Amino acid sequence: MLDILLVNDDGIYSNGLIALKDALLEKFNARITIVAPTNQQSGIGRAISLFEPLRVTKTKLADGSWGYAVSGTPTDCVILGIYEILKKVPDVVISGINVGENLGTEITTSGTLGAAFEGSHHGAKAIASSLQVTSDHLKFREGETPIDFTIPAKITANVVEKMLDCDFPCDVVNLNIPEGATEKTPIEITRLARKMYTTHVEERVDPRGRSYYWIDGYPILEEEEDTDVYVVRRKRHISLTPLTLDTTIKNLEEFKKKYERILNE
Hints:
Blueprint (H helix, E strand, L loop, with lengths): L1 E6 L7 H13 L2 E8 L18 E5 L5 E5 L3 H12 L6 E8 L11 H11 L3 E7 L18 H17 L5 E6 L9 E3 L10 E6 L5 E6 L11 H6 L4 E6 L8 H12 L2
Parallel strand pairs: 1-2, 1-5, 2-4, 5-6, 6-7, 8-11
Antiparallel strand pairs: 3-4, 7-11, 9-10
Helix pairs in contact: 1-4, 2-3
């Protein structure tokens, strides 16, 4: 039986977790364990709670099943899931389905990718799955516009099946699904774009005259054609980017020849 650990940085009550669990159970004979943060943890990257205690609470989910809520980060969830809840490394760690794309080199700030990288670090096959959501639909966070994760969950389960069957030679699969995708939407293998958003800082003033700041940005649409940003946002295709834990520069030998002598002079 396949052991699958599900994590989601949107929190333990994310509908993406339930939809993904259901899609996986339709396809696999699997034991699925859900471990997710108690609260929203987007943008936390691969942070680990080293200086504060963590609590794990068995929690009843919307479909009546049970999961484990962790008072920490998505990476904490993976570590506790492996070493305290499962007591072993699962076959697969799946992080998602995240609300909003995780594209470009900015994935280093993503809690979704942080959990997937942590799973791979401990020896599991790992995939991060994210769904593009336009700003008009972000009202769901206030309960106004629920998102249907059914098709994205089936797409993710199909990719997991192929990843396991073919033993993809990468550490993490970063899957990004455009809004409105179907199971027939083409999947393209891509590389990371340089940026997903522009960077913008807005200064405001509080009632006491002190400045405070909001950091945000605007989606980038124009990128090179083989990048994840272009494929998802311009072509409306599914992007699959194979990632590695080893972020060492690719042309290391060339770099060494050019700079090692200079560094030692």
